[in-house]
Amino acid sequence: MESPTSYELLNKIDSPNDLRQLPAEVLPEVCGELRQKIIDELSRNPGHFGSSLGVVELTVALHYVFNTPYDRIVWDVGHQAYGHKILTGRRDRFYTNRKLNGLCPFPSPSESEYDTFTCGHASNSISAALGMAVAAARKGEDSRKVVAVIGDGSMSGGLAFEGLNNASSTPNNLLIILNDNNMAIDRSVGGMKQYLLNLQTSEGYNRLRYNVSRMFHHWGILNEERRKSLIRFNNSLKSVITQQQNIFEGMNIRYFGPVDGHDVQALIKVLREIKEMKGPKLLHVHTVKGKGFKPAEEAATLWHAPGIFDKETGERIVMDTTGMPPLFQDVFGQTLLELAQQNDKIIGVTPAMPTGCSMNVLMKAMPDRAFDVGIAEGHAVTFSGGMAEEGLLPFCNIYSSFMQRAYDNVIHDVAIQKLNVVLCLDRAGLVGEDGATHHGVFDMAYLRPIPNLIISSPYDEKELRRLMYTAQLPNQGPFVIRYPRGRGVLTDWKCPLEAVEIGKGRKMKDGTDMAVITIGPVGNVAAKAIEEAEKNNNCSIAHYDLRFLKPIDEEMLHEVGRRFKKVVTVEDGVLKGGMGSAVLEFMSDNGYTPTVKRLGIEDTFIQHGAVKELYAICGIDQTGIYNTLIQTLNL
């Protein structure tokens, strides 16, 4: 950790109120120290890097102008909020960020009163902030300001547009700040636009505009409908002058900008001038992702979450992976390219995660065969369904926890029509440091009730390749393949591409005293626990890899039901409604009465921490499974 004198100004800021006591002329220096603090900490404690560097000045300006926490700031995609955390009483604990029992990876109301809403996933800020603004008006808290900060591509999410639509028609004083770092909206420049910005944010202009509006209301000339018509006329006139239209003005949301998001003084001036304006407003701010750290500015995607790095040279400290098993996502990427080379119907689809899920492999080799649709999971699924209806075979890769947002699309736009869409759920199970918002532990439970779905999870990398090959065979219908973040267990993973029988599991080893049923890569952990239990306790334990949750291998389960009085199920998903529940249902429906002990995620949200730590907490690490096996044997 730095010495107490490392940050002369920052070390005196224990809350935004301390920040507001400083003269405005020293704020650029505060921004410099805050940016350096983020660089220092993340160089040795990995996290989301580029996004938070890009909003340092905006963060300082917001807390300087608004009376937080009474005024509400709602962050979108919370990896922008590291500076916010440091300024709101968590500076000295920031080194614990993303660690077990440390600071949450994203803003969380349970952690701080300054964190107004959960924001691990993107595009929810406008809707949540609008709800807060309406609630403030309802409670007579007319002085409370509510600000939504959206950016980093989040405006492409459908929920953001739903929020905008509602904000345009519901009485509110919401301020939306669009952090545009060139990921979603093009730059807008020109002298006339700067003139209009100065005019619109002028206190005199807006005071005159407000007084005239009140006068017209008093005379009965300007009712609500006429007010909206006048705004539409004003926006149309601006569009003619600037030769540019934007969607916000088309929705009767007053638009200001663009402004330089790295000029803290200019930001404070603009925010002060528009904060008291009535009605919904949008401030368009241009920022640079990774601002202040040249390598991150030049390679924003690479430096989104770069891991450990040398803060002086910018060199990333990359672990030597020679001889190690590959990442599951890389096996997916390479296998998808192989399949696409053999099957010209295959198309790749991903919602803004081409690098994270390795869809970029196909994009590089066959750019016309892969689509990044932006942060729009529901659209990704329905878009895939539309292509499947016309005979193509989409591999739609979505992180498991993000697929939750496309649930209706899976049912309505894929499953009902039994379309040939392969839904690849990356980051299934416990994902580690990103925490509760990102753990992919619900997918088996929420997908299992849907008719027409095939639901599978590979034991290892070879099984992933075989399942992918099987999924692209003709007339399979909707096919789900779920697999975890991180590395597999095999170094010789490039097996021949061959089909597996749908709904058939595998007996990994026979036994006589107890049966263990697993699904997915957690089966490898269970296999080690079984080996240890047999070695230490003179027992015989059978191990079954279910492979398919749906259709479930009934022949295998009949064998287990007939032969064993003691059964342990192991899964990396929630217990309520998951694989263990499916096994219990089968046993009950068929008159079998074994003692079944289920291991998985209990009915609680799991915090953030290393995957190994979280497996231990949930009892699905080798030690936890071993202990359960011994306890069950001794029943």
Automatic annotation (TrEMBL):
Keywords: Isoprene biosynthesis, Magnesium, Metal-binding, Thiamine biosynthesis, Thiamine pyrophosphate, Transferase. Thiamine diphosphate binds at residues 79, 120-122, 153-154, 181, 293, 377. It catalyses: D-glyceraldehyde 3-phosphate + pyruvate + H(+) = 1-deoxy-D-xylulose 5-phosphate + CO2. Binds 1 thiamine pyrophosphate per subunit. Its EC number is 2.2.1.7. Residues 326-491 form the Transketolase-like pyrimidine-binding domain. Pathway: Metabolic intermediate biosynthesis; 1-deoxy-D-xylulose 5-phosphate biosynthesis; 1-deoxy-D-xylulose 5-phosphate from D-glyceraldehyde 3-phosphate and pyruvate: step 1/1. The keyword Membrane does not apply. It is an enzyme of class 2 (transferase). It comes from the Bacteria. Its cofactor is thiamine diphosphate; Mg(2+). Pfam families: DXP_synthase_N, Transket_pyr, Transketolase_C. HAMAP family: DXP_synth. Belongs to the transketolase family. DXPS subfamily. Homodimer. Catalyzes the acyloin condensation reaction between C atoms 2 and 3 of pyruvate and glyceraldehyde 3-phosphate to yield 1-deoxy-D-xylulose-5-phosphate (DXP). PANTHER family: 1-D-DEOXYXYLULOSE 5-PHOSPHATE SYNTHASE-RELATED, 1-DEOXY-D-XYLULOSE-5-PHOSPHATE SYNTHASE, CHLOROPLASTIC. This is 1-deoxy-D-xylulose-5-phosphate synthase. It comes from Phocaeicola acetigenes.
